[in-house]
Every structure is written in C-alpha cells, then in structure tokens.
Design goal:
By secondary structure, the protein is α+β, with helices and mostly antiparallel strands. The protein contains 17 helices and 20 strands. The chain has an 18-stranded antiparallel β-sheet, with helices on both faces. A two-stranded antiparallel ribbon has the order 12-13. The radius of gyration is 26 Å and the shape is elongated. The relative contact order is 0.11.
C-alpha cells in the first residue's frame, strides 16, 4: 500500500515539473460577488461550528474589507488563479475594487506585486519579498482578470483544475515506457476537473465534474456508460443496518471498449505474464456476462456487501478475484532507474511478488449456494500492522455476491431481489453520517459517545454523458454539525486513551 502511495507522490511531482513550462493557470477559483458569497458562507459555517465562523469572519474582514466591502463592486465576481513559475506555484487575486478599497490599500502598503487593469485590481498573493519579474506578473494578472470577468456562471464558488497539453512530458522521463503509457493516456484524455459549490439557506450543493477531451477514448467511454435499466439487486441490501449504500447501472460492455488497450497495458505491467493473460480473459468474460447493474452496502458493523446480476460461472468469478491479489510491483521496472533507492525510494522490500492470499471452496450446503473465501494478508511494516482481508464470494440464482464476513454473506443470501427499479441517475449513493462516523472512529481505535442527533442521510447522484462524469451531492448544515459535534465529543472522550483502545 505504501508503495502505491509513493508511486502517486512521484507522479504528482513529475506533473508539477511539467506544469512549469506553461503560462496558463493550472487552477482557477472564482467566486460570485464577495459580499454576497461570504455572507452565505458565514451563515452556513455558523450553523455548523461557531468557532469556525469566528475564524472565517476574521479572515474575510482582513482580506476583503468585510463587513461593508467598501469600494468592492457588489455585482462582480472575483478570481484567484494559480500558475507555475520556475516549478513553484504562484497565486494571483483579481477583484473589481477601487483604489481606496481594503484590498487596494493593503496591496499598496505591502511590497507585493499589484496592477490595475481598468477597474480591476490584480495582486500577487506570495510573500512580500518574493517579487515576480514585471512581464511575468503582468501575464499572470491579465489571465486572472479574464477569469474573474467570466465569473462563476452557475455556482457561488467554482474551482477548476486544468490539465495542460504537455503535462505528460516529465512522466516520459521519469517512468519506464510501459508504465508511462498508462499515465500518459489518462492525461491525454482528461481536459478538466471542476468543483462547483452552491449555498442556499442551510444547504450546500457540491458538484464534481471530470470532463474529457472531445473525441477522446475517455469521452467515448463516458458517453457509452449510461444504462438506465431496472435494478433488482437492491432487495439484497438491508438499508436499516446501512452506514452507506449505493446502486446503479453502467454499460461496462460498451464503456470498456475504448479503454481495452489501457486495461491490457495495466495488467501486463502489474502482473506476471501468465497471470495477466488469464486475468484478461476472465475480466472481459465477467464484463460480457453481466447486466452492468449492482448494489453495494457498508453496514454499521463495518462489514461490506456487493451484489451483481451476472451469468458468469462461479469458478471463473472466483479465480478472477483470486488472481487479482497476485499484483506485482517492481520499482526498477516502473522507474527509469536501475536502483530505486538511489532516488530516495525506501521500502521494506524491493519488490512485491504478490500479496499473500489463500483460497477455500465451501460445500454448497454450507450457504445453500456455490461459495468460497479468499483471505489476503497485506504487507505490514514495524509501524503499520494490517488485518487480513476476507472476501467471501457466492453464486446463486443468476447473482454474484461478495461479502467481507460470513455473517453478512448469510444475511444477504437470505434476502430476495427487489422489483426492478429505475434510478434517476446512473449511480446513486446514500450515506448515514452518524453510523459512518462511528465506523471511522472504530477504525481509528477511538470511542464515539452516544448521541441523540439523527441527521438526514447525505445523498449523491452521478451522471455519465456529454463527455463528462458529474457527481452532485447535497449536504445540510445539520449533517455537518452532527459530524463535527460527534468528533469533538470523541476527542474529549478519548483524551488520554491509548490508540487502539476500544
């Protein structure tokens, strides 16, 4: 696990190096009228946490001239753009403000770069002593004012992360050819990641969008994904015991075709050839045998369940999941270097020839279905000891069942499929914050005190199509307050309690 995280860090560092070659912003934050948006934020934050509201008031007062915002245009958006300059991020603020406004007076009294473009003020948010060359700052200021003029069209606050066209350049130099193909493909396909926030009364709507380049394989897969057929798997889920649940349908048969080359490259890169060849056949067979519909649950006792309507035979499904545990990592193959340790990459083992997993097949009368268990022991270090992962797999009446405990498998098999239901989105997620918080506290070895708060579930809907994946989540302030209060009480209750004590 640590190796995978380390690989991610190296890739991010490579990306940052490649960003330095461009003069367009890599991140853009826009906000509608600062006065109105800050007031909405203050109202929401106050409903969640009075202490956080006090900090917010202090910050907004010192930076934008709250509460009156004298000299700041009440109808114009503001923007902050992040650029890369010499490998370092530089943030520039653009706001429609007069020369006597708080932002303008603050800029004048400091040694910061600032520039007026008509009625707009652009300010370098870096430390006073870190001065950009005039031409560089002027370029950054112009781009930031452009972003502010465009504003947040359909949201109060918007954050856009733009993927530059040459972002894969450094990766080619860092990763070996077979591994760089995977990352390069992703960077070539993805155009933008965007997060929109809308505040209304005590409700916060969040939309996360992954937008693919038009005509790319990613866009083709996204546009082919919507299924919208009846889902029967929800009947196997006991919602009364759920901390989180989801269901939906994705046309994997069509969506996987544009990415079949990437999947094959991934399998060949992370699995020995004899295993990758078998996995390729089993995975494509599994996809072709399925309806694409599913239902999943995380129960309040931390057990998990996944159900799929699938005609694949049990032996193939079981073997596929067993082989997936045989992932292999070899740093000397991943990176363009003979000795990964020379680059500061230190691990308990130079290579991992596969996780330590074992499998067991049960007689059919044990569960009334074909069933087996795959138990996987994760690599541990002196600092981190991880419990084995159990994956029970069963096949019955045209459905495949995955469960993390024997009890959850028995409970699931005892239930029946529901009448076919059609969702208003492609994937639906529901989270019960109170139950989920208790699970999280348990994992951390903390005690969560009893509480009478019963917050409404958080719901998220995901849509595929129009070259984008869009997830919309609505979170009430009461939800956030309940979570905040529970964890505050937990910290007080557990003060002085050794980690791992239950």
């Amino acid at each position: 696990m640590k190796k995978i995280l380390l690989l991610g860090i190296v890739m991010v560092a490579s990306l940052c190096a490649s960003f330095a070659k461009i003069q367009e912003p890599i991140c853009i934050l826009t906000m509608k009228s600062p006065a109105q948006t800050c007031e909405k934020l203050k109202s929401y934050i106050s409903a969640v946490d009075s202490g956080a509201a006090m900090i917010f008031n202090l910050l907004s007062a010192t930076s934008l001239g709250a509460p009156n915002y004298s000299g700041v245009d009440k109808d114009s958006s503001m923007a902050i753009c992040v650029f890369m300059n010499g490998g370092n991020p530089r943030s520039v603020l653009a706001i429609n403000a007069s020369e006597f406004s708080a932002p303008a007076m603050s800029a004048k009294s400091s040694q910061k770069n600032f520039l007026r473009l008509d009625e707009w003020l652009a300010v370098d948010l870096a430390n006073d002593a870190d001065i950009l060359p005039p031409k560089t700052f002027a370029d950054f200021a112009y781009e930031t004012v452009k972003a502010a003029k465009r504003g947040s069209l359909n949201s109060d606050i918007s954050i856009s992360i733009n993927i530059p066209s040459d972002a894969d350049a450094a990766i080619k130099d860092t990763l070996s050819t077979e591994y760089s193909k995977i990352i390069k493909s992703a960077l070539e396909e993805l155009r933008q990641i965007k997060i929109n926030f809308n505040l209304k009364d005590d409700n916060l709507d969040t939309q996360i969008i992954f937008k693919a380049k038009e005509g790319s394989s990613f866009a083709e897969a996204i546009n082919a994904a919507p299924l919208r057929i009846g889902i029967t798997e929800t009947g196997f889920i006991d919602e009364s015991k759920c901390a989180a649940l989801s269901w939906g349908g994705i046309d994997f048969k069509k969506a996987i075709k544009p990415f079949s080359g990437v999947l094959d490259t991934f399998l060949k890169s992370f699995y020995p050839k004899e295993i990758s060849d078998k996995l390729s056949v089993l995975i494509y067979g599994f996809i072709d045998s399925g309806d694409g519909t599913f239902a999943s649950a995380i129960y309040e006792d931390s057990s998990t369940v996944n159900v799929y309507k699938n005609s694949a035979d049990f032996d193939s499904a079981f073997e596929m999941n067993y082989l997936l545990t045989k992932i292999s990592l070899d740093y000397s193959k991943i990176f363009n270097m003979a000795d990964p340790k020379a680059a500061g990459i230190v691990s308990d083992m130079d290579t991992s020839s596969g996780l330590n997993s074992e499998k067991q097949i049960f007689p059919e009368d044990k569960f009334g279905a074909q069933a087996g268990l795959i138990k996987t022991v994760l690599p541990s270090s002196k600092e981190v000891k991880l419990d084995p992962i159990s994956n029970y797999i069963a096949k019955k009446d045209g459905y495949l069942f995955y469960a993390s405990t024997e009890k959850s498998l028995i409970d699931t098999l005892s239930r029946k499929p529901s009448k076919a239901m059609l969702g208003d989105c492609d994937v639906y997620i529901k989270i019960y914050p109170q139950k989920y918080a208790k699970i999280y506290a348990s994992i951390l070895g903390k005690k969560l005190p009893a509480t009478t708060i019963s917050p409404d579930p958080i719901e998220a809907r995901t849509y595929f199509g129009d070259n984008r994946i869009s997830m919309i989540t609505s979170i009430k302030a009461s939800n956030m307050k309940a979570i905040s209060d529970m964890f505050k009480s937990s910290l007080q209750t557990n003060a002085g309690t050794p980690a791992g004590a239950k």
